[in-house]
Amino acid sequence: MSDTQIKLGEVRLSFPSLFRKAVFDNVETKYEATVLMPKDSKQHKTVQAAIDKFIAQTFKDGAPKGLKITCFIDGDDKEYDGYANMMALKGSSNKRIPVFDKDRAPITEDDDKVYAGCYVNAIFDFWYSSHPKGGKQILSNLLGVQFKRDGEAFSDAKVASADAFDDESDEDDF
Asked: Exposure winner among 47, 75, 106, 133, fewest CB in 10 A?
């Protein structure tokens, strides 16, 4: 791993777009995901230390005025399920993010294994952007995800099971 990369263990996955690019206002953007960690956790301290180190390495004379760290936010500022008392690190990539199982075997979308609410290990890398629209900001690339364990799903989206339907295999189609 490079100087600016960090590996986080057992963080909670949120808003994963790992197999398909995220879509906002009918526009495909990037592959991305957010991971959540308790505010008082080792992971929180690891991310903050890595960001501080990245800033020190990138800006020898100190951080520029108006620099925003948009990739790492206080979950209490969001009204999303599971974000209370958490810190949220968002990473993205123009390329599909590799996703692995516990045994390091690749996971595909059809495996239906990773979801918002499961626990993962994840590797991130930080970078700096200075853009007229977004301003000066620290962002992160999500380099890879490894499924760690199941967790309670964040989504309250319900789907029907086969038991909700009648068996119609004996009826003729007209």
From this structure: 133
Helix (H/G/I), strand (E/B), else coil: 20: coil
Assigned token pair, 8: 């986080």
Q: Is residue 125 part of a domain?
A: yes
- In one-letter notation, the amino acid at residue 83 is Y
pLDDT of residue 133: 81
23-24/119-131 β-pairing:
unpaired
DSSP per-residue string spanning 30-42: -EEEEEEEETTSH
**CA nearest to 44, candidates 92, 8, 2, 5:** 8
Query: Could you tell me which residues come within 8 angstroms of residue 129 by beta carbon, excluding any fewer than 6 positions away?
Result: 136, 137, 139
Q: What is the pLDDT of residue 169?
A: 75
3-state SS class at 11: strand
Is 166 within the bounds of a domain?
A: no
Average pLDDT, whole number, for the chain? Answer: 91
Cβ(122)–Cβ(91) under 8 Å? yes
Residue 64 lies in a domain: yes
SS3 category, 49: helix
Q: Which residues contact 78 (CB under 8 A, 6 or more apart)?
A: 88
Domain, as residue range, for 72: 5-151
Count up the domains in the chain and report the number.
Answer: 1
Domain assignment present for 141? yes
Return the percentage of the chain with pLDDT > 70, whole number: 92
